[in-house]
Amino acid sequence: MKFLLPHRFKIIGTIIAPLGFGLWLAMQSGLITKVLVLIFGGHLTASPYHIINVAVAIISFFSFLLGIFFLTFSRENIEDEMVQRTRLDSFQVAALGQIIVIIAGFVFMLFNGDPGESGMMVFFIILVFQFWLSFIIRFNYILHVKYRQ
Fold it and tell me: How many other β-carbons are positioned within 10 Å of the β-carbon of residue 72?
């Protein structure tokens, strides 16, 4: 591919993707609010906690996505035809997996009824993450585990 980032972005992506995901999980579990209450006590109203939680959610979500982008679109140390072919095959497998998840999700909704707006949002977020994570896992497995043997 012509438009790949330098290899150092893969290292940056390896760091910020898990940090963003961990921070997002901490926010979802209420850990951020608990830490804020410990630091500031009960002196603040609920509104600043909500604003901080929303800000942490936005920052963590987009840092996770940026990390995934860096992991996906950065060069390997040696970028040859085998790496390019493995990248293409991994994109195809990820797309096939996403189609399977879409069909299974809609069949599930057919039998279980309307999941509502929040259920659909979660479904589409899962679709996006499933595609990129399955690409990254397969690409790195094939490149670094299978071909090293």
Answer: 22
Indicate the pLDDT class of residue 87, thresholds 50, 70 and 90.
very high
Find the domain containing 92 and state its range.
Answer: 78-149
Q: 3-class SS at 73?
A: coil
Are the beta carbons of 6 and 75 closer than 8 angstroms?
A: yes
- Give the number of residues written for the chain: 149
d(CA 117, CA 125): 12
pTM, full prediction: 0.77
Domain co-membership, 69 together with 94: no
In this structure, the answer to whether residues 103 and 71 fall within a common structural domain is no
Same domain, 96 and 70: no
Of the three residues 75, 102, 117, the one that is the final residue of a domain is 75
> What is the per-residue pLDDT across 11-34, written as a single tens digit (0 to 9) for each?
999 999 999 999 988 888 888 888
